[in-house]
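We close this part of the discussion by returning to an individual protein. The amino acid sequence and the backbone structure tokens for this protein are reproduced below:
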Amino acid sequence: MKRREFVLTLGSAAVAFPFVARAQQRERVRLIGVLMPLAADDPEGQSRITAFAQGLQEFGWSEGRNVSIEYRWFGGDGERARKYAAELVGQAPDVILATGSPSVIPLLQLTRTLPIVFVQIADPVGAGLIESLERPGGNATGFAVFEYAISAKWLELLKEIAPAVKRVAVLRDAASPAGIGQFAAIQSVASSVGVQVTAVGVNDSGEIERGIAAMARALDGGLIVTQSGLAIRQRNLIIALAARHRLPAVFSLRQDVVSGGLISYGADSVDPYRRAAGYVDRILRGEKPADLPVQAPTKLELVINLKTAAALGITVPATLLARADEVIE
């Protein structure tokens, strides 16, 4: 090749190279799968996903630019959960974000290699999802929904807002191993506050209705609704029954009180999704779930509904109102 031709060819290649490099970079789009137990139009679910997307952007990941997100919403339907889990695993994403045991369990039954970041898991070790909180050891890690000490606080708050309560039904999902730990924590403080607690294991709406009606027969009764997927799916029914039977009730999520419950204390349900984006980022950059410790909640909130309190004839103590993160009037 003549010298002039060689120089021209070299110059053309130098000019073209940045465009080729940028094209290759644009093609490097990572795939994230998201499996959610709520319905796609659920406002709470949308808030959580928005927080996750915002968290990703803070780490430099933007949908449509360098990341693609496949969402699946199964609305509490176990059969659809398994179907959508299989669909996501079949797409071989770089990482999957999963909410609650109903999402994580079918995923782990299908894959022990694809990275999974979970949120809203009560007891990941007890459920057999990981080996330990410090070193999960497998392909899943994430954010626990609460520490069991929070459960004991529910009873103390119930006694504080409704001092006349002497008997408390503890509503728990019979299929969830976390319900055992939550009840044990509640039971550990029952004698110190002078309350008799009874575990009520439920699987469906009929059992919820019968369990709450049974406690309503006690004039000094109250209700604690432990945290579970069942409690979220049956939220409106539980709140309506507590109101009908005039039972003061404590819940674990802010949304329960927004929907008409009396009082709640627990982890912020949106914050873990923003934090989960950090783990997704670390995995996309090469870290392994096995080496990322499961994290406990860092943001707890106390919420009180004054309208519900008034309907129950309860005057909320000023000291309790002063501690509340949010008061709904």
Observations:
- The mean pLDDT is 90.
